[in-house]
């Protein structure tokens, strides 16, 4: 296990005027929004969801490709389904690189994969991870703003949310940053910057929940303190710089396990725990700039 977390760092507020600085410090000392990743964080979608959908789409397109569980783990190094198909072509099927219509062909293959994924998810095949529904409900009740920052397509997300919450995603999440809405996918910070812009909040007023190294890197590059909930594909990744790393969000009768970073002081991650971590983060940030 390579997961460890380092002390959090602050953005440099010295560029702000004193009055702005005071306002910003007030803002960041209170948790105002939680930004969730989707795949691997809300649900274990990769192995039995996206991977299966890719393989079914390959068959329909007459391809003899098969992404095993292990190969898919390698391909997860790249985020985004179209980008992942391209990585496979470049690494294992480079005879396809000669196709003049490669971009359009990849897009249509991915489009079909996305339809299959939605059907799979709507059939109820992919449940939420422990604690996800509980925490989202608690945040809603407390008036904490909730957003999404994901590389997956909006259609797939809509299906996942509909299947598990019986609500349209726009009812649950105030801001949804998904798919190709930004050009550079995680680990680039763009999707987090886009979401922060829509929330009109500084990154320090938010917490991100991620499951992977590319997700953590994206959130950190945007300045958002990040909780990591690991899963089978990501448990051995490097989580340096995470605020805290835990096994999952846990449930009152099925506690989460602490892994690294700020300690889990309760049996599961709830709003109180998030506020405690965020307060410790804000205090560290403010001390670092004094
Ligand atoms: C994870 C991803 C996604 C999915 C596939 O996204 O990298 O690309 O594996 O989804 P995140 P699409 O963790 O940011 O939610 O095929 O819809 O791109
Ligand atoms: Mg993820």
Structure at a glance:
This protein has 290 residues and is α/β, with parallel strands linked by helices. The protein has two domains: 17-44 and 127-289, 3-Layer(aba) Sandwich (Rossmann fold), CATH 3.40.50.1000; 45-122, DNA polymerase, domain 1, CATH 1.10.150.
What does this structure look like?
The chain is 45% helix and 10% strand. Strand 4, helix 10 and strand 5 form a beta-alpha-beta unit. The protein has a 7-stranded mixed beta sheet with strand order 3-2-1-4-5-6-7, with helices on both faces. It has 2 domains: 191 residues, HAD superfamily/HAD-like (Rossmann fold), CATH 3.40.50; 78 residues, Putative phosphatase, domain 2 (DNA polymerase, domain 1). The longest helix has 21 residues. By secondary structure, the chain is of the alpha/beta class. It contains 11 helices and 7 strands. The structure holds xylulose-1,5-bisphosphate and magnesium ion. The site of magnesium ion has 7 residues, from loops.
Map the helices and strands:
Layout: H1 18-28, E1 33-36, H2 46-60, H3 69-75, H4 81-92, H5 102-122, H6 132-142, E2 145-149, H7 154-165, H8 169-172, E3 175-177, H9 190-199, E4 206-210, H10 213-221, E5 226-229, E6 244-246, E7 258-261, H11 271-289
Helix pairs in contact: 2-5, 4-5, 5-7
């Amino acid at each position: 296990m390579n997961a460890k977390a380092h002390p959090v760092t602050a953005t440099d507020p010295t560029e702000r005027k004193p009055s702005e600085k005071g306002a910003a410090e007030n803002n960041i000392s209170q948790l105002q929004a939680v930004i969730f990743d989707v795949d691997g964080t809300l649900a274990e979608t990769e192995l039995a969801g996206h991977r299966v959908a890719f393989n079914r789409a390959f068959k329909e397109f007459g391809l003899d490709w098969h992404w095993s569980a292990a190969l898919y783990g390698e391909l997860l190094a790249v985020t985004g389904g179209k980008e992942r198909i391209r990585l496979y072509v470049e690494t294992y099927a480079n005879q396809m690189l000669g196709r003049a219509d490669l971009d359009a062909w990849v897009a249509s293959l991915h489009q079909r994969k996305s339809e299959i994924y939605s059907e799979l998810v709507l059939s109820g095949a992919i449940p939420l991870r422990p604690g996800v529904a509980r925490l989202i409900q608690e945040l809603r009740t407390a008036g904490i703003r909730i957003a999404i920052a994901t590389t997956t397509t909006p259609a797939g997300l809509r299906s996942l949310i509909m299947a598990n919450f019986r609500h349209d995603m726009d009812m649950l999440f105030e801001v949804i940053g998904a798919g190709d809405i930004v050009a550079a996918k995680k680990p680039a910070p763009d999707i987090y910057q886009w979401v922060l812009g829509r929330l009109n909040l500084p990154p320090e007023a938010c917490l991100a929940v991620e499951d992977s190294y590319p997700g953590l890197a994206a959130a950190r590059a945007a300045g958002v303190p990040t909780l990591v909930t690991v899963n089978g594909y990501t448990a051995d990744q490097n989580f340096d710089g995470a605020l805290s790393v835990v096994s999952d969000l846990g449930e009152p009768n099925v506690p989460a396990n602490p892994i690294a970073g700020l300690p889990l002081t309760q049996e599961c991650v709830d709003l109180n725990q998030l506020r405690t971590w965020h307060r410790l983060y804000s205090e560290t940030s403010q001390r670092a700039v004094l």
